[in-house]
Amino acid sequence: MNFFEFLDKLKKNDNSLILYCLLDRIPIIVLGEDSEQVDQFLIDLSELIHFRKEYVFYTDFISNNEYNNLVLNENIDFNSQRSHIRCPCNVARKALSQIEDINSWLIGMELPDQKDHFNYLKNLIIKKAIKVLFIMISANNISIEVEGIDLKLIDLTLEQKIFRKISQDTEKSIAKMKRVLSEKIQVNHLDKDLMKTLLDFEVEKNELKKNIVKAEIQNFYSGSKRAFFILSRLSLLNNVEINTNIGSKTLLETIDYEEAPINRIISFIAKEWEANFSILIENGKKAFMGDKIVSLWG
Q: Are residues 71 and 185 located together in one domain of the fold?
């Protein structure tokens, strides 16, 4: 079963929650009976956030000090590529025993036979991260659990929109390809088995879905980064006592990206670059924030 077939088996909005956690650097723990299947699922997850630099635990680094050195540049250079860590099943226990901070980690683990053992691992992981997403996969099934995440406070509008687009655009593309081939097949009166083979696009469908989701995530990332550049400069003005704000509508028009709510973009910026710019967003009412006011209206 491929990656998107697993996601299709999830309950409504659970696939969107996985994408939300990926974007907001919430650690994801994937557990399953088949370590090769789990490791492949980790790779598929990692490929979705291609705008970050992937490091693999016990290949690119082996200790907590080395890990801290790898991510040190993020704190001093906003233009540097953010990182995420992929940790295969065979070294997961080493990681949990050595690494203090597992935010933005994707960790694979073999599912313990006994529930007590699972609860022990779960408690160990929760000590290292405030929020965690657990994904349990088996041969033909998948389910999720969350810790420290209040689902009522999460806006999944962007993520839901992305998955709707994946479904709609993939079906449109497959329909077009089938229509072109069907016309050629009917003219040449081909064998039925050969026709069936020629019109089977299951492999291509998976590739199309990957391409669409990567493109949508890249668009969101690029739009958020443009917003980050603008808001960081407005923040500098505030630091020299020129109080500024910008309307949410104006900001979205300026960055030429209106697919995500402004709060989702602000949330992403806070997680990706550890910068909280929510105070700079003016929601349509002029805010007097000092003697000097610059109001960019939305």
A: no
Range of the structural domain that residue 167 is part of? 157-296
Q: What percent of the chain has pLDDT over 90?
A: 66
Look up the pTM and report it. Answer: 0.88
Asked if 33 and 112 sit in the same domain, the reply is: yes
Of 273, 282, 298, which is closest to residue 244 (Cα–Cα)? 282
DSSP 100-165: S--TTEEEEEEPPSSHHHHHHHHHHHHTT-SSEEEEEE-SS-EEEEEES--GGG---HHHHHHHHH
Q: How many domains does the chain have?
A: 2
pLDDT tens string 215-270: 999 999 999 999 999 999 999 998 888 888 899 999 999 999 999 999 999 999 99
The neighbouring-strand residues paired with 145 are 134
CA distance linking residue 155 with residue 249, whole number of Å: 18
Residue 83 sits in a domain whose CATH number is 3.40.50
Q: Residues for the chain: how many in total?
A: 298
